[in-house]
Prior knowledge:
The structure holds two protein chains of two kinds. Chain A is an alpha/beta fold. Chain A folds into two domains: 3-174, Thiolase/Chalcone synthase (Peroxisomal Thiolase, Chain A, domain 1), CATH 3.40.47.10; 177-324, Thiolase/Chalcone synthase (Peroxisomal Thiolase, Chain A, domain 1, 3-Layer(aba) Sandwich). Chain A has eight helices and 13 strands. Chain A has helices at 31-38, 52-66, 91-99, 115-128, 217-239, 256-266, 277-280, 287-297, and strands spanning 3-12, 16-19, 42-45, 76-80, 105-109, 134-141, 161-170, 176-183, 191-192, 214-215, 248-251, 306-313, 317-324. In chain A, strand 4 (76-80), helix 3 (91-99) and strand 5 form a beta-alpha-beta unit. By secondary structure, chain B is mostly helical. Chain B has a single domain (2-84), classed as Non-ribosomal Peptide Synthetase Peptidyl Carrier Protein, Chain A (Orthogonal Bundle). In chain B, helix 1 (2-19) crosses helix 2. Chain B is globular. In chain B, 30% of the residues are buried. The interface between A and B is medium-sized, with 20 and 15 residues.
Amino acid sequence: MPNAVIHSTGSFLPDHTIHNEDLNQYPATSKLLISQKTGVFCRHHADQDQCTSDLAFQAAKRCLGRVEFPAEKLDAIILSTSSPDRIQPATATRLQYLLGAVKAYAFDINSVCSGSTYGIAVAHAMIRSGLCANLLFVAAEAYSKILNPNDFSTFPFFGDGAGAILFTAEENQEGVMNSVLGTDGGGNDTICVPGGGTMLPYDRISDAKSIYFRMKGRDVFSFATSKGAEAIQNLLTQADITAEKVRCFICHQANVHIILTIAELLNISEEKFYINLFRYGNTASASVLIALDEALNNGTIANGDLVVTAAFGGGLSWGANLIRI
Amino acid sequence: MEMMTETIIESIIEGLREIFPDAVQMEISADTTLGQMPEWDSMAAVNLQTYLLQQFDVEVPLELLSDETTLIEIITFLKSPVSSQMGAAAH
Lengths: 325, 91
């Protein structure tokens, strides 16, 4: 039975950077709170005419270009996004068109910030089942388009970006080894965009701000730390692997304090946790893939290393993957 | 003077309803504390601070926007000589 092995990665951050001191809509004294509360100093924003599939396309192009893999050879494209181009059709379909991946079928998944771990698990299952051999998984988000610029509890903490993984079916390599996924739908109001869907269609929206992303910060922190740690622990236990054997833990880059608390709860050195949110903010489901690509390129991880990816977010949802690079 | 206080409190209540959509049914008065607002936290405090700055041109210190602060205390600050050196909208 073939395994889903990482053949290449890529990532893309839009050119436009916004530093905390540039956020002039907030009182000067409050700007320091942004880095204190979350560790974010800077984020990238897509241009006005750039949408999610444009970011996805750039990350995918870099991923395929790195190993000169022709898009025509792709069997499948999965795009994780919670900030799609449009309600329909799937954002992945435009990515497929832009890439010229004529043979590939393409579809979206939306597990909000957990989308990276869900996508890796789905890619793994599809390749293991023999459904496809060459699968491109992209996570792309343009949250700057769905945030209220005046909302201090969301806007300063998020950024736009995309990451990509090319998975290929290989018989003699481990690749994705195990995944743990979980959902608590009772918390589906905790992180959401209330308006614009079928629950609150546009013609029934009385508060214009309903079309913006919102979250209950305190609830999210306790959920993310407990479920993030639990998912990693369950993943390692199921695979019968100790944390010492893992080279790097790549968690969703939501908040530095969440990541450090997870490290503490698991009694794992925080130095093993990759952190780049200082520069990019929370890029939702793209964050793990961007960090994975960065860690591979800067030598933090290399071929043969064991890596754990973990994410948590809207739904509420969470997940973790054990991967041999 | 009394009218001015009424106008300010109406504006603050409007801001609180904007910041806290879940408070749409809540009765808010001059004696309401910020801690009574659903989901009140330090981030929400900055949202209220931003709103007050935009409405009154006064940067209310975050220390004043605590759980126990009542709306009347905010109004007292907005009308105080300290705030008059920052902006004139509330005077």
